[in-house]
Design a protein that fits this description.
Elements: H1 2-22, H2 47-68, H3 78-101, H4 106-124, H5 134-141, H6 144-165, H7 171-189, H8 193-213, H9 222-243, H10 250-255, H11 257-272, H12 285-292, H13 302-330, H14 335-357, H15 363-366
Helix pairs in contact: 1-2, 1-8, 2-3, 2-8, 2-9, 3-4, 3-9, 4-6, 6-9, 6-11, 7-8, 7-9, 7-13, 8-9, 13-14
């Protein structure tokens, strides 16, 4: 698996370098007045292309390993790899089109990801067979469409959740990287080396991209990159729960509760204010931390000041995400504990959000 990580890291690193050098032509379309913009200059938003290229290399290598039966190598069935690649390609294409043109409305992007999720569930036979809740599991088992519907929601919704938290250098990328390693760890615990390898391909691709993204901010993942993280991680989560009964379905819920709850909370917040959930604003949790917690930077160069504050924002959210990733990995087969930590995160997030809004943040955090 080490060779696989190195292969995907190197291919993503080189592909991203090419895009950094030649990919700035489209950036004039990205207006400086957008509320989610926290950088200066023209930075390419095509990291998703580089990561998809790297994933293609990695998944192809796994198929070749299976066909040639290399010793000590993990293989991946050709049909599974082709299905995963097709779903990733369709999802990334929608995101990259938005990155290049800025013309694809949120509703159409959602419809495209829902359609892609339906294709993924059909090709890979995905569904969520249980909830590990005694009062619901029998009813859930007799209504197979519920498990299929939940799988479609997960695969179509998580790409948008990652896109929503992708606001600062390294933020969504590190979260995706940690989640990939967590999924691979649990997959290895239950003996599913193929699923672990498929996820580690994305981890290597993400690491190669991050070299250029953090802290230099030379390229962004864009919608295409966020969609790639979301769709692959969602597929891996559903397949892990479906194929291994000892894995609690609440493991991926807690593992991904940060981007998921950020999305649900944002929908609620905008609905209360009478706004469309697809309307961009600057009131997300990471944006509040940037504005009200990260201390100002003194430098004569405005671009450098913004870049340094941008980079100082992400570690706050990395730590916040790790508070859910660690218990998810430790208690991946204990539903009650996982549910308790999910509830604890929701309470902690809501308390922290309103504390920042009302300027009641403790001094030690602002320091």
């Amino acid at each position: 698996m080490l060779f696989l990580l190195i292969l995907c890291f190197a291919s993503a690193f080189l592909a991203t370098a090419v895009l950094v050098r030649y990919g700035r032509g489209h950036t004039y379309r990205y207006a400086s007045t957008k509320p989610q913009r926290f950088h200066t200059g023209n930075v390419p938003r095509l990291g998703g292309i580089a990561m998809l290229f790297s994933c293609t290399v990695g998944w192809t290598w796994l198929v070749i390993s299976a066909q040639l039966r290399f010793s000590n190598q993990i293989g991946l069935e050709g049909t599974t790899a082709a299905s995963l690649w097709l779903v990733a390609l369709l999802t990334v294409a929608a995101g990259v089109y938005e990155d290049l043109t800025q013309r694809l409305r949120a509703r159409y992007r959602l419809l495209l990801t829902v359609g892609t999720a339906a294709v993924a569930c059909w090709l890979l036979g995905m569904s969520v067979p249980r909830l590990d809740v005694v009062t619901l599991d029998q009813w859930w088992a007799t209504n197979a469409w519920l498990g299929l519907g939940l799988a479609v929601i997960a695969v179509s919704g998580l790409p948008h959740a990652f896109n929503l938290i992708d606001g600062y250098n390294g933020l969504a990328g590190i979260v995706a990287l940690v989640c990939c390693f967590a999924l691979a760890y649990v997959a290895l615990q239950v003996g599913d080396r193929q699923l672990a390898a498929a996820v580690l391909v994305l981890a290597g691709a993400t690491a190669g991209f991050l070299v250029w993204n953090y802290p230099g901010g030379l390229i962004f993942a864009g919608d295409g990159g966020a969609y790639l993280w979301g769709v692959v991680i969602a597929i891996a989560s559903v397949m892990l729960v479906k194929h291994h009964g000892q894995v609690s379905p609440w493991f991926p819920v807690l593992l991904l509760i940060y981007p998921v709850w950020e999305t649900l909370f944002s929908i609620y917040r905008k609905s209360v204010r009478g706004q469309s959930p697809g309307l961009a604003d600057a009131l997300h949790f990471h944006q509040l931390i940037y504005r009200r917690i990260v201390r100002g930077v003194f430098d004569d160069d405005e671009a450098r000041r913004m870049l340094m504050r941008n980079n100082r924002t992400s570690p706050y959210l990395w730590g916040f995400a790790l508070l859910t990733v660690m218990p998810a990995v430790l208690f991946w087969n204990n539903t009650l504990v996982l549910m308790a930590f999910c509830l604890l995160f929701v309470v902690a997030y809501t308390y922290a959000y309103y504390s920042i809004i009302r300027f009641k943040v403790p001094r030690w955090i602002r320091r």
